Amino acid sequence: MSRKQADAKAAPAAHDPVLLALVQNRLDHISQQMGHVMLRTARSPIFQSHDFSCFVTGGAGQLVSQADGCPVHTGSGGFAVRGILKDFGADIAPDDAFLVNDPYLGGGNHLPDWVIARPVFVADRLVAFTCNRAHQSDIGGGAAGTYNPRATEIFHEGLRLPPVKVAERGRIRKDLWNLLLANTRTPDFLDGDLRAMLGSTQIGAERVGQLFDELGLDEGLRYVDGILDHAERRMRAEIAALPDGVYVGEETANSDCFERMEVLYRVTVTIRGDSMTVDFAGTSPQMKGFKNSSIANTHSMVYVGIGSFFQPEMPRNEGTFRPVKVEVPYGCTLNPRPPAATTFATAFPAHDVIQAIWKALAQAAPERAVAGWGKAIIPISAGRQPTTGAQYVLYHWNGLSGSGAVQGRDGLNQIAHLSSLGGLTLPNVETWEQLYPVRVVRHEFREDGGGAGEWRGGTGVDYVADVLTPAEYSFRGEGLYDPSGFGHAGGQPGAPGALHVTLPDGKRHEPPQYSLENLPPVRIHNLSPGGGGLGEPKRRAPEAVLRDVRDGVVSRGAAERLYGVVIAADGRSVDLEATRKRRAA
Amino acid sequence: MDGTAAMAGTRQRPAAPWRIGVDVGGTFTDMVLVDDTGILSVFKVPSVPSSPADGVIAAVDAAAAHFGMTRGAFLTGCGLFIHGSTVATNTILEGKGAKVGLLVTEGFRDSLEIRRGIRFHQWDHRAAYTPVLVPRSLRLPLGGRIDRDGKELAPLDRAALDSALAAFEAEGVESLAICLINAFANPAHERAAADSIRQRWPKPWLSVSTDIVPIVGEYERSSTAVVNAYIAPRVVTYLRALGTRLKEDGLRHPLMLLQSNGGAVSVDQVASRPVNLVLSGPAAGVGALTFFSAAAGGNLISMEIGGTSCDVALMSGGTVGVTDDLVINQYHVAVPSVDIHSVGAGGGTIAGVDAAGMLYVGPHGAGAQPGPACYGLGGTEPTVTDAHLVLGRLREGSLGSGGVSLDRAKAVAAVETRVAKPLGLSVEAAAAGIVRLLEQKLVHAVEHMSVQRGLDPRRFTLVAAGGAGPLHGSPVGRMIGCRSVYVPRLSGAFCALGMLHSNLRQDFVAVTRPDSIDSMDMAGLAGRFAELEQRARSSLALEGFGGERLRIERGLHLRYRGQQWSLRVAIPADRPPDAASIRAAFEPEYRRQFGHIQPDGVIDVTALRVAGIGLLPPLKPAVPPAAKTAPAARETRRVYIDDKLGWRQTPVYAGADLKPGHRLAGPLVVEEATTTVFVGVGETLEVDATDNFMVRLGAPGDAA
Fold first, then answer.
1. Domains in chain B, please, with CATH?
2. Where are the beta strands (DSSP E) in B581-634?
3. Which residue of chain B has the CA closest to A369?
4. Shortest CA distance to B28 belongs to which of B100, B86, B72, B67?
5. For A256-278, how does the pLDDT look when each residue is reduced to its tens digit (9 = 90+)?
6. Among B119, B184, B358, whose Cβ lies nearest the Cβ of A423?
7. How much is the mean pLDDT over chain B?
């Protein structure tokens, strides 16, 4: 294994290095400010958990800055803007604004994420787009709230929007606007949220225009290129530091949303010098259910997998990913033919793609390996508030899973979806009980849920809740039956998830893994999957095992059996002698 | 007199009674004294982190020695002693708090450790959390359940309490906290458990979540109770000891502490809620802003820059915002705190060039050890202070306090090796680039506090404070479009000065079931305000405040129906609440922050707030007589102005030579006891009637 030297030290002399840093910092600040405008002005509650991203692209759609946003959106914005450029070409004028969501017709990632893109002109030249991608509260389709686990075609999933001009020369197109509002169950939210998106891109466009005014057109373009070039040099240096080779990573799912079956996600990462190819040849063909991933979403997930593998302060613009070539066979589940359903892809297979890439890269840089995160199994309950009759949609976020261990840190015992890199904040139980007819009975770590390892996987949780009204349930039990948080380097996988409900007559009912069911008031028992462990369990520090046993997250039996640690009779110390013997055996 | 003490002021004995503010920071302990005729003196001594009380006493002794008095005589003449201390903060940062046991509702042992999954840097998924303050083995369950409306579903399990206490005893737990599900709606179980504990638990430290913050949200409420329990034994013991020591040495009035809400309180009253001291020092900036608003107006943005960070606070119409959402070392603390935005940008912030040739400044800093390269304490990485020294804006040699001396050659070497050469720049261009990039971050921090809250920063006066602030005031002010920048002469003791212009303050909160202002029982609301006000009045009566020296402020947490977050809005305290006046208070604030209102929206009340304020006499410093003659520069030195103008021979004034009425055109440097002021070309420095500096930026081209 030869470590190569990266010759990427000096910036080209053509750019003033101070100005380059200032411009990059300014552009990041602009995308953050667009995000704040969005937060301040959007209507629907979903945006308070920041399920949106603001970004700036160059005139050709190349992503320049996305300082504010959801990892799941990383890099896919360029696809949407290029979709707009393809359809509208020369028919793009100042004060126009475009809207797109369709993964097949316009570079969208999945239908609920709508992109508003606003062109920025300087001296009659199209220099940039300021954009906002946001998950809408409802877009029609077969289930309230955008997730229809019974969908088999994109037509079941909601309104499809190829690139459309939503505002022309500063005027919103009323005919189109009315069409949009006619296709949602929550027109008030959509009306307010779209206006917030338009407002935030407007602020962004003004600020980008200002920056170009200060720099001058040619200099502005040159410095935008300089920023992309810098990111490219950073990435090339990171890749060059990895040994050349061909690394294969595989992940599997156990369902196509209708039947138990193995779905394979296979990635071959080839590192040559300072560039990398990511090839999904061998991945399963597209599936019946709504877990197919659009090509834009697949790219995003590749970028999250790679971006999160390296240093967190790496830039994440289009330049970063120039050295990365992504190949996805047409017709596989990560680049499906229309009209395959795709809505769930931003959670699954997003999770699988990121982990397959982590597995492959870990072979090149073992010290940066990440053990598997548990896949979520949380249901959604939709019903009517007992007092007002108003529709509610309740996500059981407090049933989310545990994460995998890394070198030097145990897995997090409960954390949000991997595709957000855990960026979503869980609600307080007390707040949820105020908002919804639910009473949470338990929200605690599992015992022996985390995969054993020198660094232990996150435990997952035991979540039990009484839903007090009849409700329609969307079950999406991706992490059921089989362990999903894989172990690494001798570490063991986390425990699989388990889910059942108790009916009013006390009977136990186990819903299908993916299903829509109408149920009376029930008690949900959601045992979430644990994360994987990293390294041999017998290398775990005995004091850490003792603490886990005292904390009740590892049983005494598991401590002896898996970790080779014998706890003394008083339960408060390690029996060192017995442990030594056991570990030597 | 040794070199540690008197920085400014007069040797003449102060006129009794004098007032003292002492701010213990990480590196220096600042004392500001104002005597009965309004004469100000400042003292700066090194802090003693291992024994903060010794730092306080050292400041007292330095002041006493300066005036030729004994410690006893000095303390006896003191009418008010206000203390801002980092002891609470440091206990948390250093992980040196007590062993805490936490009682929770059965089924919810882990809220504290799950932390609602909040990540502090999303892309850094490998980062570990700071250690949970109570391990799971000491988070013990109690059976019993209150529902969301406060109704008891299952009684408190007293047997479980007995066994939990026995377990805590066996484990050597020092301090207890209790947080039960839905206790905000009905604290009966928490109180019953607390009563039992007080009868049987031998140690005095017990933190009951609803006594500290009766808010909705088991994570934030338990985290706050736990932080309180964690720091109480050390902080309260320290404060009591310091109070006793000062009393024994002659202080005749109780020692007062500055709280995170910007108000002062006695040791006795803060002893049950030391968590209120987490922002003790920086929160005094509110007092300073209030003080300077008399001369500089009520729309101010302060930028207090020290060695490691820049604290930005905003005063609009004479009021500084208060928030309930404070995070320290990743621990959430939901107590009323002055709204301060802190960014890692200070004199010690490190600059460098990344692997692909991009200049960066921060986020890491050099701290006090080794500090900037120019300190000569072993630092080799260039910092912002090094850049200023390279550019001639700071003076070589002794810094005047703390025995630090600045070595320009070391600064040049660090900037040259780490930044100039890798980028192919001259040393001064590299140093100027470091300063510019830092200043852009400062601009963004100011915009965070203003633009993002719907306020236009151009309508504010920037207050450049802290030891390093006045070097950046003008450039930052220009970039955000301010017309002027205010520079307090005592910039380097901004917070200690602020303490002398603070009031006493106690905050009280009560949550309600969300209820519409149009249909709720207004008499009931008035009654709940009256209850909170009664608590505020009795608490301030204990400190000797009542009648005209006591003011009550009311606030409500309001939101449109269906929303999940509330806006905190002040309402009149001098008349019964009614729907129209509540709406009239809510809508403009909502529009300002969110850009729109819902004209027919139902407005729900979610919580009531009362602040009891004990009014202390305002700070009225004596002002030196106006200038009669023009000041002379002490010297001229080469200072790098900017990339266009390059180096200029620039006059350097001693602060002591500048008097009210003086007006000087930049470029110039003023060296004050606690700071250095840099004024650029086309800018004018005026000494105002209160003896502070106002820098007029002017428009480009209208240089005065």
1. 6-92+236-277 (3.30.420.40), 102-217 (no CATH), 349-437 (no CATH), 504-614 (3.30.1490), 641-696 (no CATH)
2. 603-614
3. B126
4. B86
5. 999 999 999 999 999 999 999 99
6. B119
7. 92
